[in-house]
Amino acid sequence: MGKSNSSSRKTVLLQRNRDPQHGLKISFGVIIAILFLVPIIWMLFVSIKPDGFSTTNPLDWFLPPYTFENYTNIIADTLILRWVWNSLIVGLITTILTLFITSLAAFALSQMKFRFKKTIFVFFLLGLMIPGEATIIPLYEIVKNMGLIDSYAGLILPMIASPLGVIILKSFFDGVPREVIESAVMDGCSNFKLFYKIVLPLAKPALAAIGIFTFIGSWNNFLWPYLSILSETLYTLPVGLPVFNSAYSQAYVLPMTANAVASIPVIIVFLIFEKQIVKGISFTGIKG
Known about the structure:
It comes from Virgibacillus phasianinus. This protein is mainly alpha-helical.
């Protein structure tokens, strides 16, 4: 083990020495990282300033006085924690249902034989060409006629259709060796067992990528929750924060505190699932 580790370190050092632009790439990456971190750091410093604080010098935002009363006031006097909870529940349920439905549809299109299978797959491909905004009006009418406006079901159900997820999973299922499928069928494996125990475990990278981007899309979705939700208690963060910030159009502190409270869960999730998110981005970049 010691020799293998030392040899791998030597290989890395040799690769770095062979790349004359290695230092430049590292410096460029650090600069880009700082540019992304500066707004977050500024938001956090502004959020701990006294309410009503204003200044003409940008450096004063980073200097005392500091207070954490804004956080207690925001949590106690607003619905921001409720909006965080709504976004979390909607995102998790949407992700779970999307993975379940897309995996079943992809398995049927990949491994089962039935009439018009190619035609149905073409419809999934056509679904990628239609922007979501073009379907908002008919989608709203359908949800309204079903009596689901201003409800969790009205937020979740229209968002679980994912043509891209079906296409990605179908390509994975198509790559399963036919020998494995045929041997399982000969052993009396039903379609459900074939799906659950053989095909699905092989598609974990694809499921992770689809799940990550479904959750992120649901968390950041503004248009559909804005149209389908009327009660403030059912607002998600993308809808609730602009409503809150509009009451403080001339102030910085309380809106920044609200945004900081809303950002903390996302930052924690990113730090925990950083590797999975990076793998998902690289995966969709390669397969797309």
